[in-house]
Amino acid sequence: MSATSKTKGETTRERILEIAESAVLAKGFSNTSIDEIIAEAELTKSGFFYHFRDKTALAQALLSRSFEQDDQILGGIFERARELSDDPLHAFLIGLKMFAETMGDMDEAHPGCMVATVTYHDKQFNNEIRAMNRAGMIRWRSLFLSFLEDIVRTYPPRTEVDIDVLADMLSSTVEGGIVLSKVFNDPKVLADQILQYRTYVRLLFLGN
Questions:
Q1: Integer Cα distance of 133 and 114 in angstroms
Q2: Do residue 174 and residue 98 come from a single domain?
Q3: Residue 198: helix, strand or coil by DSSP?
Q4: How does pLDDT run across 160-189, given as a tens digit for each residue?
Q5: Which of 9, 61, 86, 194 has the CA that lies 20 to 30 A from 182?
Q6: Do residues 39 and 68 share a domain?
């Protein structure tokens, strides 16, 4: 078996997560039942509970999977951006451009964000899941801050700015862009929001 091959159990687990994610993003966690997931996955209840002991375990797996996917995309994009330029500002601008292009190349509007789903309905989740959600957002903040801290050492900002807030602003721009892209059913809207953030960063540190 190759390193990339999946066992039958791993394939089944991934199928459950894909079905659950689509349902949760479409109608929320409380409105998604284990029975409907089982039916679509063509499993028995014992087959489902072999992989997830309960609905809370499913929620934890969904959130972890979402962050892993996002970390892979963001990490890959901005790691590549650092390889393309030794200048921290130019590298960050390159990364934002590539990020926008990746989001804009989607065939349909972004399906939604598990982070937002957990946040909007946090009473449905336990403290461990809420802590996972917060930790994931902190990782994103740290990624963007790693660029911004390097940038301010070389490019004094043209106006007073809190770079912690500026780092979080990208996350809020993306989350807001996802909402807008779903409303208008247009992935380009999310890409345009990221590009507008990019323009703000360029003006803030270069002035043109």
A1: 9
A2: yes
A3: helix
A4: 999 999 999 999 999 999 989 888 988 899
A5: 61
A6: no
Cα–Cα distance, 32 to 157 (Å, whole number): 47
Residues 60 and 144 in one domain: yes
Amino acid at 180: L
Q: Report which DSSP code applies to 87.
A: S
Which amino acid is present at 101? E
pTM of the model: 0.85
User: What confidence category does residue 1 fall into, taking pLDDT thresholds of 50, 70 and 90?
Assistant: very low
User: What confidence category does residue 70 fall into, taking pLDDT thresholds of 50, 70 and 90?
Assistant: confident
Q: Would you state the torsion angle of the CA atoms of residues 83, 89, 92, 93, taken in this order, to the nearest 10 degrees?
A: -110
pLDDT confidence bin for 3, thresholds 50/70/90: very low
The residue among 153, 151, 178 whose CA lies nearest residue 166 is: 151
Query: Which stretches of 70-198 are assigned E, i.e. beta strand?
Result: none
| Cα three-residue angle 54-62-182, rounded to 5 degrees | 130
> CA distances (Å), 123 to each of 21, 30, 126, 129, in order?
19, 10, 7, 11
Q: What domain range includes position 43?
A: 1-52
Amino acid at 97: K
Is the same domain home to 28 and 63? Answer: no
Structure token digits, residue 196: 């507008």
Split at pLDDT 50, 70, 90, the class of 2 is very low
Tokens for 107?
């065939």
Spatial separation of the C-alpha atoms in residues 19 and 36, rounded to whole Å: 9
Secondary structure, 3-state, 10-72:
HHHHHHHHHHHHHHHHHHCCCCCCHHHHHHHHCCCHHHHHHHCCCHHHHHHHHHHHHHHHHHH
